[in-house]
């Protein structure tokens, strides 16, 4: 068994698609209309057949409440691995991405946390 799709609640699918493709360099894999929303998945350009990230609308009250509460508590919604946290921090900062935690060493990993502008905090980690 393996993970093939993981969901990330977003406030606005179009805004999220733009942020994740233009700033984070993810590649759109699927974009299928489903009623008033879409099934939008992204993949890493390094693993186009890897796990897909589904930009899931937070239109259900439980999803919206969950997303807002973990954001308020400073808890990242997900974690992405990077080769060099410091370089990625610099690159994203230059693109206007706002970080809530600059690169910080914690044991054997270095991590940073940023706001994805779509209701989530995202953690990037270098192992």
* Whole-number total of structural domains: 1
CATH level-two architecture = Roll
Order of helices and strands: EHEEEHEHEEE
CATH class: Alpha Beta
Beta-strand segment tally? 8
Write down the overall geometry: globular
Instruction: Give the low-confidence spans.
Output: none
Q: What is the tally of helical segments?
A: 3
CATH superfamily: 2,3-Dihydroxybiphenyl 1,2-Dioxygenase, domain 1
Quote the average pLDDT.
Answer: 97
Q: Largest sheet, described in full?
A: 4 strands, mixed
What gap, in angstroms, lies between the N and C termini?
Answer: 24 Å
Structural class: alpha/beta
Output the strand order for the largest sheet.
1-4-3-2
The Rg value, from CA coordinates, equals 14 Å
Content of β-strand: 35-45%
What is the percent of helical residues?
Answer: 25-40%
- Would you give the CATH topology? 2,3-Dihydroxybiphenyl 1,2-Dioxygenase, domain 1
Structure description:
This protein is an alpha/beta fold and 127 residues long. It has a single domain, classed as 2,3-Dihydroxybiphenyl 1,2-Dioxygenase, domain 1 (Roll), CATH 3.10.180. 26% of the residues lie in helices and 41% in strands. It contains 3 helices and 8 strands. The chain has helices at residues 13-23, 61-72, 85-94; strands at 5-10, 27-34, 37-43, 52-57, 78-81, 99-106, 109-115, 121-126. The strands form 2 sheets. It has a 4-stranded mixed beta sheet. Strands 5-8-7-6 form a 4-stranded mixed beta sheet. Strand 7 (109-115) and strand 8 (121-126) form a beta hairpin. The chain is globular. The two termini are 24 Å apart. The model has no long low-confidence stretch (mean pLDDT 97).
